[in-house]
Design a protein that fits this description.
Number of strands: 0
Largest sheet: none
Radius of gyration: 25 Å
Number of domains: 2
Order of helices and strands: HHHHHH
Strand content: under 5%
Shape: flat
Length: 162
C-alpha cells in the first residue's frame, strides 16, 4: 500500500531542500567574491543583516548599541526619545509599576509582538528610564513572592517540603 500524496509531498520537500542547499552555496560564493575584492568579512555580514531589518528595528538596535556603549564607558546616557515610539512608551509605563520588573513575556503578551521585539522594546524602555534618572529601588527581574511560613496555618499542599 502506497500513499501517492505523501510521496509527492516528500519529493517536493526534497526538491526544496536541494534548492536551499544550492542557494546557500551560491551565497557562500558571493561572500568569497566580496572578500576576494578586499571587503571586510564582518562588515559585509553586518551590512547584509542590517539591510534585512526594517528601518525601525535597525534604528532600535543602533540606539540600544549606543546606550550600551555609553554604559560600558561610563559616559552620559544618551536620550533615546528621538526613537521613542508608542510601544516603547507603553513598556516604560509597565516598567514604572511597583513590584518586580516587567518580564519580556509580559511585554510580548501585552503588546502582541514577537519575543525578539518584546526584548528590544523592554531594553529600550529600561535604557530610557535609566537615562531619565528613574530609580528602580532595588527591584530585580526574578523577584519571587515570599515563601509561606511553615506553620499550621498554611495548608499542607502549599507547604514546602523540608
Amino acid at each position: 500500500m502506497t500513499d501517492t500524496k505523501l510521496k509527492l509531498l516528500v519529493e517536493r520537500i526534497e526538491r526544496i531542500t536541494t534548492e536551499i542547499k544550492e542557494a546557500q552555496e551560491a551565497r557562500a560564493d558571493v561572500y568569497t567574491e566580496a572578500f576576494g575584492h578586499g571587503y571586510d568579512k564582518a562588515a559585509v555580514r553586518r551590512l547584509v543583516a542590517w539591510r534585512a531589518l526594517g528601518q525601525a528595528e535597525a534604528d532600535d538596535r543602533e540606539t540600544l548599541d549606543e546606550v550600551y556603549r555609553c554604559a560600558l564607558s561610563g559616559g552620559p546616557m544618551p536620550s533615546i526619545k528621538r526613537h521613542l515610539d508608542p510601544e516603547v512608551a507603553q513598556v516604560m509605563e509597565m516598567l514604572k509599576q511597583p513590584g518586580p520588573l516587567t518580564k519580556v513575556k509580559e511585554v510580548k503578551k501585552a503588546l502582541g509582538v514577537s519575543m525578539g521585539k518584546a526584548h528590544r522594546l523592554r531594553a529600550l524602555a529600561l535604557a530610557q528610564l535609566t537615562a531619565d534618572g528613574f530609580q528602580f529601588q532595588g527591584r530585580v527581574e526574578n523577584e519571587k513572592p515570599p515563601e509561606p511560613e511553615d506553620d499550621l496555618t498554611v495548608p499542607g499542599h502549599l507547604r514546602r517540603a523540608a
